[in-house]
Hints:
The chain is α/β, with parallel strands linked by helices. It has helices at residues 2-7, 25-38, 49-59, 77-83, 103-109, 129-139, 190-200, 227-258, 286-289, 293-302, 327-330, 358-367, 380-395, 397-401, 412-423; strands at 42-46, 67-70, 88-91, 114-120, 142-146, 154-155, 158-159, 166-170, 183-187, 264-265, 280-284, 316-317, 368-371.
Amino acid sequence: MLRVLDSDVLSGFIGAAGKFFNGGKEVVEFEGLWAKTYGFKNAVSVNSLTTGLQVAVGAVGIEPGDEVICSPYSMSASATAVLFYGGIPIFADLDLHRFTLDPRSIERCITPRTKAILVVHLFGYPADMDPIMEIAAKHGLRVIEDAAQAPGIYYKSRPVGTIGDVGGFSLNFHKHIHTGEGGLLVTNNDDIALRCRLIRNHGENATEAYGVEDLSNMIGSNYRFTELQAAIGIEQFKKLNGFLSHRADLGRYLDRRLLGIPGLGIQHIESGSTHSYYMYPVRFNEEIVGIPRSLFLRAVAAELPKPRFWDTTPFAEGYVRPLYLNPLYQKKIAIGKKGFPFNFNCGVTYDYPKGLCPVTERLYEKELLLSPLVREGMSIEDIKDFADAIEKVIERIHELKKWSDSAGTETMYDAVKAINENVL
Ligand SMILES: *Cc1c(COP(=O)(O)O)cnc(C)c1O
C-alpha cells in the first residue's frame, strides 16, 4: 500500500481505449498472478462480485426475457445479477448432499427461452459440473460460475471458475482473502473477457477501438478495481493456499469426529475435488437426534465460550431464506413498477410459490447447520472443544428432550444480529 501511495497513482484506469483501459500496474499484476497460478486464460478484476456477476451476465449476452437457471440458496446477488439485464431468474432445486444445483432439477427448468445456468459453489464445495456442462452443451446454454466462496478450489482436478464460460471470486471482507471489497472474474474465452473489460470500464467509448461489432450489452459502467486494492490483493493472494490448507485440516478433523454421530450428516468429498470450508455444513436430522435444530445449536453454544463475532458462533441454522421467497419475486417488482422483466414474455407467467424448491426449503427450515469455525485463527484444539461440545450434547440429549420450547427458525443473519447485539 505504501508503494502505491508513493507512486501517486491510486487508480490506473482511464475510461477510453488505450494503455490505461485495463487498469494500472498493480491491477494488471494482480490479475496476472491469479490467472497464471490456476492456468486461467483471462482474469478481470471488478469492485465486487455482485457487480462482477452482472458483468458476466452482460458479457455472455443475456437479454430481456431470457431465462437463466439460478440457485435459490445463495447470496441474493447470485440471482439479481440476471435481472439487471432484464433476464428472468428461474430457480432450480438443490442436490441434498452438495447444496448446489441438482442437474435433474436444472433439466426440468429448461424451456426454449433458457439461455444460461448460473451455478454457485456453495460453502466452498463445487457444484457437480460434469452433468451440468453436459446439459449446457445439449441445450446450447452459457454457464456462469459463482465461486465467491470457493477460491482456489478444484472440481475433479480442474480449478473452478473456468469449467463454465466465465466465473468469479469475491474479495469482500468475509471471504477467504479480501481487499475490503472486490471481485475477480476469470474466463478462458477471449471474447467474453473483452466484453467483461468493456462493461467494467465505460465500454461504449471503446467498442470501435477494440473492433467489437455486437454492441448489445456494451454500455459500460465503472466497476474498476483500484491500485490500492490490487496491491492488497497481491499480498492476500500469497496467503490463499495456506488458508485453504488450514481450513481443510480443521474440516477433516471435524469430519472424523462427527462421522459416527447418528443424525448429523457430513459432506462426502469426492476424489479430485476440494472444499474451501467457507462454512462447515452439517445436515441435521431432528427425528434421529430427538430435539429441534434450534435447541441443539443453543445447547452446543452453551458449552463453549460466548461468541464475540458472527464468525465465532459455533453453529448457525438455515443459512438464508430461499431467494424466491423475497418480496422481489413474490411481488415481481424489480425494475420500475410495471413488472419488468417478469412480464416481458407474452403469454408466459412466472410464479415463485412457497414449495417451489422443496429440498431447499427443507434445508432452510429443518436440516442445515453451518459452522463458521473452520477458519484462520482457530486451531485444532478449538475445533476439538467444538466437537467435544457436540458429543456431550448428543450424549445427554434425553435431558434436552424435556424442553419443548423450540425457538423457531431464525436465519443465520437473525442469529448473527442477536449475537452481535449481545456483544456490543
Ligand atoms: C459474497 C458472495 C457474493 C457477492 O460478493 P461481493 O463481492 O460481496 O459482492 C456472491 N455470491 C456468493 C455466493 C457470495 O458468497
